[in-house]
Specification:
The chain has 639 residues and is of the alpha/beta class. It has 22 helices and 23 strands. One of its GO terms (molecular function) is 4-alpha-glucanotransferase activity.
């Protein structure tokens, strides 16, 4: 079969047949890969006739969209009959009347929101519209100043210790950190993902959730919701005090043991009678959750094997109210943003979120990344996502519901792999990561919906844009108010020299490192190189050459820090250097605030490194001084 018909179908389905790799080299996807992916998308392509038939079916599916998006104060193209009358209904039922212009478009709409257009030929439900503001809610909006210099801390929730956290962390630990950060003048606490997870398998990752719309009950802090007396009473009744104390004192997270103990506590709590006010609040939560909550807890009960949706309903309430209280107290303590949630790029293809939207999910395909300098074979993440066609056909309902869930009562949201709004690397489930292809997404629609929900929820949006991204994407995101991320060790010029803080982006969040990168203390001594050499990740390394390069990089950073007015030798001066960025928000990872040498996660490693398991020290006597110094440095930086 000639490649022409196959490539035409692939293009119509949103697959990028031709792409550019990390070395800026043009690549063409193998026909065998295209066929495998198209077949998974239920687009038969074995013969030219099948390709043509599948392409016609695609064109039919991509006819009138279920939801059209536009921006305020611009004409809205709806293909109406020129000159015909229409009625525009807002979400409150208020109506405006008008006539389509000569191009069949609506006149500009000034107020962001969701609308319906009733007109001849549009059917009983009319034409659904989402009208977005020109940009997302910003740090400046949240702080009430034109050039904010806000700052906060990034926290792996499981790593923060409390006496009864069963070694897995909880909302109380996050609250303790929020209070300390707020006391130092900080405005935000950025959390690792707290999405609902499936029952724990051999390995745990917060970026492989069951359902991103709901919470992981393991992070519930019972005392925050029920009070200390009720929480302790259930703990004693279940005989769990000693076990939880032992787990909580552990150096590393015991995900299996901790989960077992926490669920035993949750069961004991549920057996207690709630005070009248709390019982009423539980019922209100259930009513607000509606069918989505019921579907989730039914799935969770079956998935866990306990067959008790009521337990999972109760646990969701406890978790939701725990995080609500953390946000309330963070804001009351003076934080202008409070909690920043982390939105994973995908979900377990066999989890609750996939089950909730079966018509909108990519079946038989998982996400990953193409080969790059760090992963010569590429990456297969084993997580699923939504189908572009499924999103369009559903009126983007899964995406809107997801945004509302993760933005609700949050000061901000960090979107992992923001490139996913434009394209995702997909491959057949079980296939090799290198045998994948980029799948295009309706970027303009998704970006508009992101801006709309951001404004409605008053939630700042941070898009993780590290690595190689298409030319111009960062600029487009910045125009729409999506902040990028500037990481100290990557913020350099073409020759590898570190950029002075004044040259860092104003349209990004400044930070010293991320969970996937070495801490500054670890980077300085080559701790990441030790792990690479020990585990063989990224292939064999020339350790002498790597050490020499690292020494040169450290010297370069020290020189630039000295040029910025710091001593260049101490970790504190490196932190201050990043804090001087003109970014509207700077985030200091807890590991760097404490001067730790080990990083939370080592990408590409399954065995041999305690990924997502490192706990912070029990005693942190120097933390308050580090936070105060970072706050001072923010005040000294470029406005």
């Amino acid at each position: 079969m000639s490649a022409g018909a196959l490539h035409a179908l692939a293009d119509a389905a949103g697959l990028l047949v031709d792409w550019v790799d990390v070395a800026s080299q043009p690549r063409t996807v193998a026909d065998t890969t295209l066929r495998a992916v198209l077949e998974a998308m239920e687009l038969p392509c074995a013969t030219p006739a099948q390709c043509a038939d599948s392409q016609r079916r695609l064109e039919t599916m991509q006819g009138r969209p279920a939801l059209r998006t536009a921006v305020v104060d611009t004409p809205v193209a709806v293909e109406g009959r020129p000159g015909a009358a229409y009625k525009l209904l807002d979400e409150h039922g208020q109506a405006q009347e008008g006539r389509f212009d000569a191009q069949g478009a609506l006149g500009p709409i000034a107020v962001p929101g969701y609308y319906r257009v009733l007109c001849e030929g549009a059917g009983e439900d009319g034409i659904a519209l989402a009208i977005a503001p020109t940009r997302c809610w910003s740090v400046a909006d949240a702080c009430g100043v034109a050039q904010p210099r806000a700052w906060g801390v990034g926290l792996q929730v499981y790593s923060a210790r409390t006496p009864l956290d069963a070694s897995i962390g909880d909302a109380q630990g996050a609250l303790d950190w929020a209070r300390r950060v707020a006391a130092a003048g900080g405005d935000a606490l950025a959390l690792s993902p707290i999405h609902a997870a499936r029952p724990l398998q051999r390995h745990y990752s917060p970026y492989s959730p069951s359902d991103r719309r709901f919470f992981d009950p393991l992070y519930a802090a019972p005392a925050l919701v029920l009070g200390e007396a009720l929480a302790r009473q259930a703990l004693q009744a279940a005989g769990l005090e000693t076990r939880l104390a032992q787990l909580s004192a552990a150096a590393l997270v015991d995900w299996h043991g901790g989960a077992q103990a926490k669920w035993a506590w949750l069961r004991a709590l549920r057996e207690q009678a709630l005070p009248e006010a709390l019982q009423a609040d539980l019922q209100a939560f259930i009513a607000d959750g509606g069918p989505a909550l019921e579907q989730h807890v039914s799935f969770a009960a079956a998935d866990a094997g306990d067959g008790d949706p009521g337990l999972h309903r109760y646990a969701q309430w406890l978790a939701a109210r725990s995080w609500q209280d953390v946000q309330r107290q963070a804001r009351a303590a003076g934080m202008r943003l409070g909690l920043i949630s982390d939105l994973a790029v995908g979900f377990d293809p066999h989890g609750a979120e996939a089950a909730a939207w079966p018509q909108a999910v990519l079946h038989g395909l998982v996400l990953g990344a193409p080969p790059d300098a760090f992963n010569a074979d590429g990456q297969a993440w084993g997580i699923g996502s939504y189908s572009p066609a499924g999103l369009r056909a559903s009126g983007f309902a899964p995406f809107i519901a997801l945004l509302r869930a993760v933005m609700h009562q949050r000061g901000g949201v960090r979107i992992d792999h923001i490139l996913g709004l434009l394209r995702l690397w997909v491959l057949p489930d079980g296939g090799r990561a290198g045998d994948g292809v980029y799948l295009r997404y309706p970027f303009e629609d998704l970006l508009r919906l992101l801006a709309l929900e951001s404004w409605r929820q008053r939630c700042v949006v941070i898009g993780e844009d590290l690595g190689v991204v298409p030319d111009g994407l960062r600029e487009v995101l910045a125009t729409h108010g999506v902040l990028g991320i500037d990481v100290l060790m990557f913020t350099r010029d073409a020759d590898g020299a570190f950029l002075p803080p004044a040259q860092w982006r104003r349209s990004a969040v400044a930070t010293t490192t991320t969970h996937d990168l070495p801490t500054l203390a670890g980077w300085r001594i080559g701790r990441d190189l030790d792990w690479r050499e020990r585990l063989g990740t990224g292939g064999r390394i020339d350790r002498a050459a790597e050490d020499a390069q690292r020494s040169q990089d450290v010297a370069r950073l020290q020189a630039q820090v000295r040029a910025d007015g710091g001593d260049g030798q101490t970790l504190a001066s490196w932190l201050a250097f990043a804090a001087h960025s003109p970014a509207p928000l700077a985030l200091l990872p807890a590991e760097d605030a404490l001067g730790l040498e080990e990083q939370p996660n080592l990408p590409g490693v399954v065995e041999g490194h305690p990924n997502w398991s490192r706990r912070l020290p029990q005693d942190t006597p120097h933390l308050d001084a580090a936070l105060a110094a970072f706050a001072t440095a923010r005040g000294e930086g470029t406005p």
